[in-house]
Specification:
Butyryl-CoA Dehydrogenase, subunit A, domain 3; four-stranded antiparallel β-sheet; 389 residues; Butyryl-CoA Dehydrogenase, subunit A, domain 2; four-stranded mixed β-sheet; 12 helices; alpha+beta; Butyryl-Coa Dehydrogenase, subunit A, domain 1
């Protein structure tokens, strides 16, 4: 349960964070090192020490464990500021998949699992990944296609299956593996290095600052103890939905920050660049793009805050988080695309971060459910509610 703080205290926290991102984190971004995962890990580790020295711990981690214990609504402002830098979320321990995994395990983990997995994860001592997606014909957008299996063997379980595009897998110390048992889809905690747990490869992808990679994993006769089962057997899809609600919200928060940074860069460029004897900022076509971007960012923030407030009240946010995810994922892409267009050749170069921001944002329309899948689910629920009325 988050501890309430007064407005002045919270505003001071956000000002501190904004100054930290502007003066210490963004200046450390080196676009030439975007693909050097080891260098980025060392850099974010050093920056994390500086953040902690300034009182900037992990946003959702309890204060007694060195975190800030922010509410979901407070996280909206915090993650937007953190998300303005490619390095911010990792530095402040609010990057996927760790933070969504923490939120889910906090509700589901047994006492021994909390001690062994969750608490070190919350302290930033260990890393996790969530292993659900599989190559065709396995599970993708349709959870009913899950093919990885876990069968009972004595007092433990044996897991067999193939996973890929698993965010954070290249640096994860353990995986939350979704596998089908006799009772249905279930979750298992599997330590990296367990016999039968193979890290096949890091899958190259569009994201330049992909700190944890998107790994391909294979489980062959992978034996784990009875204590590896998370929560109740057969409740894996419900658990995944629980995890996804918070994950979508965190994505929305930090990507709003990245998109707003892109537009700020584009506005600075337009204010100083002349075309046909007039500053770009005075051309109505450019003004229209800037206006539309700010309208979309405003709407994106309002939707995200509304969902966060519902989550703080303990309400189900399945429908609202799905709508917010679709809108925000598409809005931030439009904003970043406009920023690139305004900046012209500079926008598509790597002399400025705009092209990399666009590449970072594009996958969000696929992550945590493609827009098309969400639209179908939103419409089904809308029709169902109308039929009940």
């Amino acid at each position: 349960m988050s501890v309430a703080r007064n407005t002045a205290e919270f505003n001071a926290l956000i000002e501190n964070l904004r100054d930290f991102i502007d003066t210490e984190v963004i200046p450390c971004e080196d676009l030439r090192l975007a693909g050097d995962r080891e260098a980025m890990r060392e850099l974010t580790g050093r920056l994390r020490d500086r953040a902690i020295a300034r009182g900037l711990g992990a946003p959702r981690t309890p204060r007694e464990m060195g975190g800030l214990d922010l509410s979901w609504e407070e996280c909206c402002s915090f993650l937007e500021e953190a998300g303005r830098s490619f390095l911010g979320p990792a530095t402040l321990q609010c990057a996927p998949p760790g933070q969504p995994d923490i939120a889910a395990l906090d509700k589901l983990a047994s006492p021994s699992q909390r001690e062994r997995f969750l608490e070190p994860l919350m302290r930033g001592e260990r890393r996790s990944c969530f292993a659900m997606t599989e190559p065709a014909p396995g599970v993708g957008s349709d959870p009913r296609m899950l093919r990885t299996t876990a069968r009972r063997d004595g007092e433990g379980w044996v897991i067999d299956g193939h996973k890929w595009f698993i965010t954070g897998a290249m640096q994860a110390d353990f995986a939350i593996v979704v596998a089908r048992t006799e009772a249905g889809p279930s979750w298992f905690l599997v330590e990296r290095g367990t016999p039968g747990f193979e890290l096949v490869r890091d899958i190259p992808n569009i994201e330049p600052f992909d700190l944890g990679g998107h790994g391909e994993l294979r489980f062959t006769e992978c034996r784990v103890g009875s204590d590896a089962l998370v929560g109740e057997e057969g409740r894996g899809l419900e658990n995944a939905q629980l995890r996804l609600e918070g994950a979508r919200l965190f994505h929305c928060m930090r990507y709003i920050g990245l998109a707003s940074r892109a537009m700020s860069i584009a506005q600075d460029y337009a204010s100083g660049r002349e075309s046909h004897g007039t500053r770009l900022a005075e051309h109505q076509m450019v003004q229209a793009m800037v206006a539309d971007a700010h309208i979309e960012l405003y709407a994106a923030r309002l939707m995200t805050v509304d969902v966060a407030r519902r989550l703080d009240r303990g309400e189900s946010i399945r429908h609202e988080s799905s709508m917010a995810k679709v809108f925000v994922s598409e809005a931030v892409n439009r904003v970043a695309d406009s920023a690139v267009q305004i900046a012209g050749a500079l926008g598509i170069s790597e002399d400025a971060p705009l092209s990399m921001i666009l590449r970072m944002l594009r996958p969000f329309r696929i992550y945590d459910g493609a827009s098309e899948v969400h639209r179908s689910a939103i419409a089904r629920r809308a029709f169902h509610q109308r039929l009940r009325a």
